[in-house]
Amino acid sequence: MRKIITALTGTVSGVVLLFSYHTSTSGPASLADPVVSSGGTSTSAGSTSSSGSTSSSGSPSSSGSGTYTGDVASTRWGPVQVRINVANGTISAVDVLQYPQGNSRDAQINSYALPILTKATVGSSTAQIDHVSGATVTSGGYVASLQSALDQAQL
């Protein structure tokens, strides 16, 4: 009888703990964090556009210079969009215009992943960069938007 009571108490405790566990999608929305930028100025995340349209403020020229905005890549955790500055056929700066920030876990992941991704991109002319461990979804969206911008730049 004692073993049954112990087993039942352990099972009830385990179920209570399981249902009280808060996942990363149940946290409060984070405040607008600064957009990750390399080689340019930061803008606030609240100023991002959600139109999903592709635009470029420069056109391909013989020198391969200009600013190109990639398509919005819809990911499981939210949209990702990048804008690149191209000088002499290589990427000189990357601005991350949109990225997942629906909860505190997203903010934590992206605060370390996006600088790694932008650093890997600057100086290259390709979207063949490594994904960041722990930020696979954001990395995939980043690469997809980056490839769209590179296509516009004809790199």
Roughly what percent helix?
A: 25-40%
Outline type: rod-shaped
Radius of gyration: 21 Å
Distance between the termini: 74 Å
Strand segment tally:
6
Oligomeric state? single chain
Low-confidence runs of at least 5 consecutive residues: 25-37, 40-62
% residues in beta strands: 15-25%
Report the sheet with the most strands, covering strand number, pairing sense and barrel closure.
6 strands, antiparallel
Number of helices: 3
Characteristic terms for this protein:
155 residues, six-stranded antiparallel β-sheet, 6 strands, 19% strand
Task: Characterise the protein shown here.
The chain has 155 residues and is of the alpha+beta class. 35% of the residues lie in helices and 19% in strands. The protein is built from 3 helices and 6 strands; from the N terminus they run αββββββαα. It has helices at 2-20, 104-121, 136-153; strands at 37-38, 55-56, 66-69, 73-75, 78-87, 90-98. Strands 1, 2, 3, 4, 5 and 6 form a 6-stranded antiparallel sheet that branches. Strand 5 (78-87) and strand 6 (90-98) form a beta hairpin. Residues 25-37 and 40-62 have low confidence and may be disordered.
